[in-house]
Design brief:
It is a single-pass membrane protein. InterPro entries: TonB (IPR003538), TonB-dependent_transducer (IPR051045), TonB/TolA_C (IPR006260), TonB_C (IPR037682). Pfam families: TonB_C. With 281 residues, the protein is α+β, with helices and mostly antiparallel strands. It has helices at residues 2-6, 12-16, 26-31, 33-62, 79-90, 133-136, 193-203, 208-212, 244-253; strands at 179-180, 217-225, 231-238, 261-263, 266-278. Strands 1, 2, 3, 4 and 5 form a five-stranded mixed beta sheet that branches.
């Protein structure tokens, strides 16, 4: 008990190196790290101060006391160089020789030519004057004069027009008019969708075969609303059979004319898809 009280408190190094080899070197370095750091800082600062103080003392006390004769000077003699330059200037440079002018080109043989002058007794040719307008009224312009009948119409009549085409050649059947799937104004049953289903419910008849088989469901029908509102081609997209598909087509064919679809202010043909419901009570 007394030994524990007298012993110094354990620090971090003692805790880390407990039960380890403390003579290896790491324990000694960690133990004396602060001492070594302090010595290094003192030595470094002292060295810097000595260098700075020595340089300052040399400039302050040694340089001003140097004797003037100790400062060596070098004299440069330029007289020899000046003499050489004068000698070079005195050299006489001969002027360039004059080149002889090139010989003149040889003269070419020439013959005098003057335009002929008309003689005093030579006949002067008078050009033919142009014809007058009255002479051109009943004649055709040409390179020479020819006697003949008077021309009543100077202008040549155009060729006759080609025969009119009464039947187009090589043209097939006219192209079927486009059927739209989406338009600015959709076709509509008179009175709207509610009136359309009222009409279908009042006209449709449940097929007996479907009643016996207890069949119910929806028949999807696609048809064309023509430009005059009549019902065109009808196709069954999805049916349930047992006569229900044929009955839906029959009722749609019997519909009155719709309000046709419009595109760019004109009536157009439009596809329309609708379901027909079959439900047993």
């Amino acid at each position: 008990m007394d030994n524990n009280k007298n012993s110094s408190p354990a620090n971090l190094d003692d805790i880390i190196f407990e039960h380890r080899n403390k003579t290896y070197g790491a324990y000694f370095l960690r133990k004396n790290y602060s001492k070594f750091l302090t010595k290094a800082a003192v030595y470094g600062i002292s060295s810097c101060l000595l260098l700075i103080g020595g340089a300052w003392g040399y400039q302050k006390f040694v340089v001003p006391n140097l004797a003037p004769e100790e400062i060596t000077s070098v004299e440069i003699d330029l007289s020899a160089l000046e003499e050489e330059l004068e000698e070079e200037e005195e050299i006489d440079i001969p002027p360039p020789e004059e080149e002889e002018p090139p010989p003149p080109p040889p003269e070419l043989k020439q013959v005098q030519f003057l335009p002929p002058e008309p003689k005093a007794d030579e006949e002067v040719i008078i050009e033919t004057p142009p014809p007058e307008d009255k002479d051109l009224e009943d004649a055709i312009v040409s390179t020479q004069d020819v006697e003949g009948e008077d021309v009543t119409d100077v202008f040549t009549p155009p060729p006759p027009p080609p025969p009119a085409v009464t039947k187009p050649a090589g043209l097939g059947k006219p192209k079927e008019e486009q059927i739209f799937t989406a338009v600015e104004q959709n076709p509509e049953f008179p009175g709207g969708t509610s009136e359309m289903y009222k009409y279908i419910n009042s006209k449709i008849k449940y097929p007996p075969a479907a009643q016996r088989a207890n069949i119910s469901g929806r028949v999807f029908v696609k048809f064309v609303v023509e430009k005059d509102g009549s019902i065109g081609k009808i196709d069954v997209l999805k049916g349930i059979g047992f006569g229900c598909d044929e009955e839906a087509v029959r009722v749609i064919k019997s519909m009155p004319k719709w309000n046709p679809g419009r595109q760019n202010g004109k009536n157009v043909r439009v596809f329309f898809t609708m379901p027909v419901f079959y439900q047993l009570e």
